[in-house]
Design brief:
Strand content: 15-25%
Largest sheet: 10 strands, mixed
Structural class: alpha/beta
Oligomer: single chain
Distance between the termini: 46 Å
């Protein structure tokens, strides 16, 4: 089908009323044959791989819009429409930030670029004082590898320091790449630190820094040099995250039980590192940066709403989300003897070099059509007490752009969102393992609200054929670190309870062979049913799920 034929099919279906109504709505309205029909369209070659700024993503947005309009689902985007314009900005930074270290009675100040290097996106200007400094060795918690640097340590409200980009010998840097590059984020988000100091770059290692959002200097078609690219507000506070020079670290450790030269030697040799508090040491981070927006690129979220029935509770919301973008297509052909085209946006499966479009049927066509089914089910069934807001996020693949933007510039009050359920890759089995045919992975369900976790479990038990709920990927030490890698994290970062539903990665992840023919539609339907039942229970709860912030407890082996 060509672009024109896909668009014409939508128009004809609308004018002829060929989008069949789901009798009574609700759970029974979610049917595999319709999920198959919609996903066949969404992941067709005509959508050109749904790259963030491409024509195919716009066509997909129109496809979702027209279905929502036919089902009479209320628009909740900008100016009464379904679309929310997302501004992705390329930014240049002028930094006057500095770090002042007090060791005993001695004090030294290091300017950004002169002994310390701040991230280019530093957030709003402010001073952050850390009265306590903790050295946490390699800064890794990986129990499967026997590495638990935070065990027995309380770093809440402290600045943490870690060394060694590649970790110790016991930690495979390939397997644990996501953990190694996310150590600053882990220290702040999971351990409660207020700042982090990363010595990886100054110790002669390569890599090691993570947590920034797409810091590429030449991202985007405009090809304008910038320091970072983001959809986030520039005026929000961000925990300081700096790299330090040998000079800085030598002074910082000048009264420590082990000197910096010895720690640096051990880290370079991948040997075990001690951990200890730096007594009589305090640090002040003075964040002072100006930002110049050098480039703005536009894309769209699709946002819809089903209003709740309760006069008091309808002003609060359960948010359901899925990203509808993927990674696009290759513009050029492969050289003779090669299957990989220059500029290929993802992996090329052996023997499939002639396929130049990354269709993304599972990632995340499966979540896109699941959200469509949920919107219709709630609109045509009995309305819950709370309102349901549906967001098809753009730009997840490029850096959570759509969800970052929506949570910073929401079209409904962000403080009124009581929970967010994210749907990403729910149409297959992890690693194509048939023994996973009944399994869905839940990530983040207990981290902010243990009540939300129990609601999801009760929802599953109520289904005619309950799924097997697996929490392996919820473990903070899971090597894939999926908690941080999809749109739910943008909501969790605002303190909103979340659940990320996924059936896991497989050999076609980001490959040109992620095709609709490989989707298991009966399983997809059942996962959609679990999400519907979970959302219904939260939306009908007489109170918001309690935010007890007990952290991840469910993990591998949790029944």
């Amino acid at each position: 089908m060509t672009h024109r034929r896909v668009a014409l099919a939508v128009i004809l279906a609308l004018s002829a009323g060929l989008f069949p109504a789901a009798a009574g709505g609700g759970l029974s309205s979610i049917r595999p044959e319709e999920l198959r029909e919609w996903l066949t369209d969404v992941s067709s070659d005509e959508m050109l791989g749904r790259a963030i700024y491409g024509a195919g993503l716009g066509l997909t947005a129109a496809y979702i819009e027209e279905h929502l309009r036919q089902w009479d689902v209320r628009a909740a985007g900008d100016a009464g429409g379904y679309l929310q314009t997302v501004r992705v900005r390329g930014v240049r930074t002028t930094s006057r930030s500095s770090v002042t270290v007090q060791v005993g009675r001695q004090s030294r100040t290091f300017k950004d670029g002169e002994g310390v290097t701040f991230q280019k996106f530093q957030g709003s200007s402010r001073s952050v004082v850390a009265p306590r400094v903790e050295f946490v060795g390699y800064g890794i918690d990986a129990p499967a590898a026997g590495q638990m640097d935070y065990r027995g340590k309380d770093v809440k409200d402290a600045a943490v320091v870690f060394l060694g980009a590649n970790g110790p010998k016991t930690v495979d840097s390939g397997t644990y790449r996501q953990i190694l590059t996310g150590r600053s984020r882990y220290a702040v988000d999971q351990q409660g630190a207020i700042a982090s100091i990363d010595a990886a770059l100054s110790s002669g290692d390569t890599g090691g820094r993570g947590g920034g959002q797409n810091a590429s200097g030449r991202a985007g078609s405009a090809n304008v040099p910038v320091d970072f690219t983001t959809s986030r507000r520039l005026d929000q506070p961000i925990a300081p995250d700096v790299s330090a020079s040998d000079e800085f670290l030598t002074f910082l450790f000048s009264r420590a039980p082990v000197g910096y030269d010895e720690l640096k030697r051990k880290a370079a040799a991948l040997e075990p590192l001690p951990s200890f508090r730096l007594n009589d040491v305090s640090i002040r981070f003075d964040v002072d940066a100006d930002y110049e927006v050098a480039r703005t690129q536009l894309t769209h979220n699709v946002v819809a709403l089903v209003e709740g029935s309760d006069p008091q509770l309808r002003s609060s919301f359960v948010a359901l989300g899925a990203h509808y973008d993927h990674i696009g297509y290759a513009e050029r052909s492969a050289a003779p003897g090669s299957e990989r085209p220059p500029g290929a946006p993802g992996r090329v499966t052996a023997g499939a070099g002639a396929d130049h479009i990354w269709n993304g049927a599972d990632d995340n066509g499966s979540g896109t059509v699941t959200l469509m089914a949920l919107a219709r089910a709630f609109r045509e069934g009995p309305p819950p007490k709370r309102s349901i807001v549906f967001v098809w996020h753009t730009g997840e693949e490029a850096g959570l752009y759509g969800s970052r933007y929506f949570t910073d510039y929401p079209t409904v009050p962000i403080e009124a969102i009581v929970a967010q359920l994210n749907v990403d890759m729910v149409g297959r089995n992890r690693n194509d393992d048939q023994e996973q045919a009944n399994t869905v992975y839940l990530v983040g369900s207990d981290r902010i609200s243990s009540e939300l976790h129990e609601i999801s479990r009760a929802a599953n038990s109520s289904l005619p054929h309950p799924l097997t709920l697996d929490y392996e990927m919820n473990d903070p030490s899971d090597p894939e670190q999926l908690y941080y890698r999809s749109d739910h994290y943008s909501y969790a970062a605002k303190g909103i309870p979340v659940i990320f539903f996924t059936t896991g990665l497989h050999p076609d992840y980001h490959a040109n062979t992620d095709e609709v023919s490989k989707i298991q539609f009966d399983k997809l339907t059942r996962v959609a049913g679990l999400i519907f039942e979970t959302a219904s229970r939260v939306a009908n709860l007489d109170h918001a799920p309690v935010r007890d912030r007990r952290g991840a407890r469910a993990g591998k082996g949790t029944p």
